[in-house]
Fold these 3 entries.
Entry 1:
Amino acid sequence: MKLDQDEMQSVLRRLKRAQGQLGGIIAMIEDGRECQDIVTQMAAVSKAIDRAGFATVAQGLRQCMADPDEDGVDVATMEKLFLSLA
């Protein structure tokens, strides 16, 4: 199933923000920053990626429910994708 690109813009923004945070973490490690600061930023990146994944699955579920015959993707498949993020 291809997801609606307009609906996925918020996911793209979230992932781009996480990408920037990840670059910041790399710089922090290279600069010898404190462990607590690094781990705090890692937690933020992890949460952002998790939320992007959940938002993607939610969009897929909405599309699946709106047109269940499109691409042959069913709710069970979307549920399996959702649980893979846990």
Entry 2:
Amino acid sequence: MGRYVEEILQPGEQVRYSTTLHGIVYLPGVVCLAAAAGCAVAAGALFPLLVVAAILGIAGAFLVARAWFQRWTTETDVTSLRVIHKEGFIKRRTFEISLDKVESVDVDQSIAGRIFGWGDVTIRGVGKGIERIKLIASPLQFRNHITAR
């Protein structure tokens, strides 16, 4: 399976910048797995704590797998002509906006997002409305590639 952006490039159009979701999407699953490991170590012979460890382990594995799949199926690209965002595998959501039609690009970052490099990007387009991309990696670089001419 090739990348979505490579399938829809127009003649003469080139990809300038590509990004995806930040690795922070793995955090809930990793926390569950760490809690499961802690419960398993502390359990000893206590059966109820082993059950809690098993439940947390299954939940953590599910959350990590879901985050990986979400990250794998999300593409965000800036080409020489437009901004392209695709998420989903079977149920797909995409938006494309011409660079000429981009009115503004806003970046929202928390303190942790600034330290570790993730944030939300809001793209306002003329006649297109507002599109928001959450938890994107390197949002300032992404914005700079959109606004640079």
Entry 3:
Amino acid sequence: MRFRVAAATVLLASFLAPALWAQGLAPVAPESVGLSTERLARLEQVIQGYVDRGQVSGVVSLIARRGGQAHLRAYGMADEADGRSMETDAIFRIASMTKPISSVAVMMLYEEGHFRLNDPVGLYLPELRSLDVLHITDTVNGVFDRVPSERPVTIRHLLTHTSGITYRFLGSPAFAPSPAQNLLSGLYADAGIGDGLAEHAGTIEDLVTRLGRLPLMHQPGAAFTYGLSVDVLGRLVEVVSGMSYDEFLRARIFEPLGMEDTYFYLPSDKAGRLASLYAPSPNGVTEQEGTVADRYLTYSATYSAGEQRTYFAGGAGLASTTRDYSRFLQMILNGGELDGVRILSPITVEFMTSDHIGDLPSGVVAPGSGGFGLGFAVMESPNVVGDLLGSEGAVYWSGFFGTGFWIDPREELLGILMIQTFPNATDIQDKFRIMTYASIVER
């Protein structure tokens, strides 16, 4: 009898688990966590205005405070041509919001004693054991040579984007690249190195092999240069764990946290929930289909549901839902734990969300009015630059296709706003953040 009861309990749990996962953080009344319903309604009107004016097609916004989901709303359309309304369970290409997840994966292995952060990555990835640095001798004619690196690239350099590995897209004229950036982006293009934003044949092992043949932008540790460093870390995870990067994230992060809708490549029964990608146009926004490509910038609207499924871009490749990502962020806000599942130690989370770059030059993609930790930009002086509200120690990042988030430990607050627009020519993310803080009425 006890066996039958236990078996029935297990069977019931197996049916309930997907439903529990889909619930995300527990919904709460805004006032119960110190937020104003009236002020959140004002925020919703502003977001709806972006949709009504045709600046974005659709939006999902989420705000959680003190562990409770106080706001979750969908606006507009997920696909205008098909007449598909945006829903709160829509799936978005989160692009660089993949990076914090990848950084957590690395730090899990760090906690388990597999390596130290100051270890040369070449100890684990021999392709990167001996690297050169780009040295331009004639900026007018693009003449360059290569000089030996003064120090090895370390795991810490990769986590902090100080390795000297860059992104190909940063050579685009839209980013006013330096001569070195323009030249190195061209070398990346010639070598067939992409940015993880389009469908790629091959694997991230192939990426590391190609990067190992090319020079670095600068000496390791000399500057913050946004780039493919985190994609390299995905390969490090594969080598150390003995698992594919996709398998590692699913087994060690997504399944334990109940992130059931987060993938590099969507299963066929979920592909229909992927929000369409749009670009600004004179008459609102226009849907982008297929792949957009030039020498520097290549991205694909079909990447998450495409046929090439072997390339796991740890810096930009994931698709996810607002609810799934809120569970990941709440785990960080809780100091590494969610619903009894511990992913990291609170000491490690504090270490990751502290500034690690100091006064280093920050290049074309600057963290903002603060520093950069291990996977997150860190707000250090919120009143010094710009007009975004927030607390010292808040961390944040965004994605290529317009998604963004922040976590504020002091206010026990997190916010996520998901759109699918490139380039994003609006200030919707800033307005969302400002008005979320303005909705706090109890501290």
